[in-house]
Amino acid sequence: MKELYIFSPSVVNQLQYPRKNYFIDTGFITALTTKFSKNYGRLFENYIYGLLSQQCETLHYYRDREGAEVDFVSLTNGRADTLYQVCYDLSDNDTVQREIKALLKAKETLKCNNAQLITLYSKPAIPILPEIEVITPEMFLK
C-alpha cells in the first residue's frame, strides 16, 4: 500500500491531513470493501496512480477549503507541474462539472498551466474547456 499526502508547503499540514491510500494489487480494494457493488471509479483511480507513480517523481493530492479535490498533483522542483483529475465515466453532467470546477480552482490556486482529465471513456457529457486536456490511460502507455 502506498500513501499520498495532501499538497501543502507545510510539512505539518501534510502530516495532519488525511492521506489517500493506493494498493499495488487492486484485488485488495475489492476484497476489503463492504459494498456489494464494485467501485469502478476507485479501482480506476488506483490504476492511474500506478501509471503516474512510475512517471512522476513526486505526487500529492489537492483539496481546497470548500472540499474540492484534485486527485493528483505532479511536482517539479516543489511546484505544481501538472494536475490530474481521474473520472471513470464522464457521461453525467453533474460529475463533469464537478471535476472541471475542481481542476480550474486548483489551476488558479497553484498557478499550474497543465490540467488533465483522465477517463476510461473519452466522450464527456458536455464540452470540456480547451485549457483542460481529456486523455485516456493508453496515452500513458505510449
Architecture overview:
The structure is a single chain. This protein is an alpha/beta fold. It has one domain. Helix content is 32%, strand content 27%. The strands form 2 sheets. It has a 5-stranded mixed sheet with strand order 3-4-5-6-7. The chain has a two-stranded antiparallel sheet with strand order 1-2. Helix 4 links the parallel strand 5 and strand 6. It is globular and about 40 Å long. It starts with a strand and ends in a 7-residue tail after the last strand.
Order of helices and strands: EHEHHEEEHEE
Low-confidence stretches: none
Structural class: alpha/beta
Overall pLDDT level: 86
Helix content: 25-40%
Sequence of strands across the biggest β-sheet: 3-4-5-6-7
| Rg estimate, integer Å | 15 Å
Number of strands: 7
Q: Total helix count?
A: 4
Describe the global form.
globular
In short:
This protein is of the alpha/beta class and 142 residues long. Helices cover 32% and strands 27% of the residues. The strands form 2 sheets. A 5-stranded mixed sheet has the order 3-4-5-6-7. Strands 1-2 form a two-stranded antiparallel ribbon.
Name a few traits of the molecule.
single chain; 142 residues; five-stranded mixed sheet; two-stranded antiparallel sheet; 4 helices; globular
Question: Topology, please?
Answer:
Blueprint: E1 2-4, H1 11-16, E2 20-22, H2 27-32, H3 40-55, E3 58-63, E4 69-76, E5 79-87, H4 93-110, E6 114-119, E7 133-135
Parallel strand pairs: 5-6, 6-7
Antiparallel strand pairs: 1-2, 3-4, 4-5
